[in-house]
Design goal:
This protein has three helices and 14 strands. The protein has about 300 residues and is mostly beta strands.
């Protein structure tokens, strides 16, 4: 467990969150006049984010969260029937998620765990892949790649990211993170003169694991978590700088200059590198998959014996 304000953190970390379909879903409701119908599908995909905790020694009360890209997709196609009058199919859909005006912010919540809250209204959700097919009162086919639907959640729709320390190896700490992102979108689509009100409501729960240096490594001048020849090159290019030096310019001991003392510190740390990520476990087949495989074998055998 990480305790707020207990350790130094790296400034910026690129993190890929993998969406958990077992905990993520989106219900889409379509309505015409007083009638409506809905369908719900599990969600999968990834969300890529830059987490920036600044250069201080503690987890700050306010940090930066910038969603640089995201690909969110339902695990199946939507089929929505509106009182037998209108049918809406959404096939092969996928949406992008990005921060509207980067960098976005997140605020640490009170409590023992390091958990930050962010406003989902800061994120843009663009449904830009797939096909919408409407039949019934009005008929139309929309290619979402050509006519994307883009919107954001209402202000005050809060998501969160919780950080937990998993393992420690020297100055390196592996952090597990869980993002919870609510989705609330509304739009009205003109289907050949018939106004169809569409709402989408659900939640994305996504997991990530990344490495940071706690405390930060003073000789990691390029701040990539490794101490190597690239850091030495930075020290060499700035050697002799008498004042106003920073870690980024080769000052390891914090005296404002780039000198031989900084080289000795680099020499001591040379070779430090984050631990290799653990190999991903191969998931065991579930009972449902085993049953499906057995059924397929039975069908094939039946055809051969026919």
């Amino acid at each position: 467990m990480l305790v707020g304000g207990s350790a130094a953190v790296a400034a910026g970390v690129d993190v890929e969150f993998v969406i958990d379909p077992m905990q993520s879903e989106l219900e889409v409701t379509a309505g015409v006049s007083f009638f409506s119908g809905s369908d719900t599908q599990a969600l999968a995909g990834t969300v890529n984010a830059l987490l920036d905790f600044g250069g201080g020694a503690d987890f700050p009360s306010v940090a930066e969260l910038t969603v640089t890209s995201g690909n969110v997709m339902p695990t199946g196609n939507y089929l929505i029937t509106i009182a037998g009058l209108q049918t809406v199919r959404i096939n092969d859909a996928a949406a992008d998620i990005t921060t509207l005006n980067p960098p976005g912010t997140m605020t640490q919540m009170a409590g023992t765990n390091v958990t930050y809250q962010f406003d989902a209204a800061d994120l843009s959700v663009s449904l830009n892949q797939g096909t919408v097919i409407a039949t019934g009162l009005a008929e139309s086919t929309v290619d979402l790649a050509a006519e994307p639907v883009t919107n954001s959640a209402p202000a005050g729709t809060f998501g969160s990211i919780e950080f937990t320390a998993v393992t420690t190896s020297g100055p390196y700490r592996t952090i597990a993170a869980v993002m919870t992102l609510p989705i609330e979108l509304q739009d009205t689509i003109d289907v050949n003169g018939v106004m169809v009100n569409v709402t989408a409501a659900g939640v994305v729960v996504a997991d990530a694991s990344f490495v940071i240096a706690l405390p930060a490594i003073a000789t990691d001048f390029d701040m990539n978590l490794s101490v190597d020849a690239d850091d030495l090159a930075i020290w060499q290019s700035n050697f002799g700088l008498p004042a106003s030096a920073t870690t980024a310019t080769g000052d390891a001991d914090g005296d404002g200059a780039v000198s031989g003392g900084d080289y000795l510190l680099w020499q001591h740390d040379n070779g430090l590198a984050p631990p290799a990520p653990a190999a991903a476990a191969v998931p065991e087949p579930t009972a449902a998959l085993l049953a499906a495989a057995a059924l397929a074998v039975a069908i094939v055998r039946g055809r051969r014996s026919a």
